[in-house]
Design brief:
Layout (H helix, E strand, L loop, with lengths): L1 H30 L1 H11 L9 H35 L6 H32 L1
Helix pairs in contact: 1-2, 1-3, 3-4
Length: about 130
């Protein structure tokens, strides 16, 4: 039951939050270099050496949103794959169903951690 609820919540979250982030990115891209730099300062990094407290807070919140969106993507993906297997008629035994439900959560957290550890490692190296 929890996997089904999270599947719906992550789908809605991806559509709403992901769509708003995408529109913000497109608007910033269309508005010019200054608007795009402000967008990057909020969601990823601020290249200026003097970063205000507001920029630090929005920068951390931007990263939290991006990490949350990637977790929601993986959660929705693995849950969808689980439902695809269930649609074939397999996995309805209680032990198997519970195992796959747990693996959906473990897999989404593991995939999110792997992606963001790679991203942060590349950012620190480059």
């Amino acid at each position: 039951m929890a996997v089904s609820i999270f599947h719906r919540v992550t789908g809605d979250g991806l559509a709403i939050v992901g769509g708003l982030m995408f529109l913000w990115w497109l608007g910033a891209l269309a508005a010019g270099p200054d608007a795009y730099a402000a967008f990057l300062a909020c969601v990823w990094h601020d290249p200026s050496p003097e970063i205000s407290t507001l920029h630090q807070v929005t920068n951390v919140l931007g990263k939290v949103v991006l990490i949350g969106l990637s977790w929601a993507f993986f959660q929705h993906l693995f849950s969808g794959l689980r439902h695809l297997v269930l649609d074939t008629g397999a996995g309805y035994e209680l032990k198997t169903n519970k195992l796959w439900s747990i693996l959906v959560f473990v897999g989404s957290l593991t995939a999110t951690a792997a992606v963001w550890l790679t991203v942060f490692a590349e950012t620190l190296n480059g």
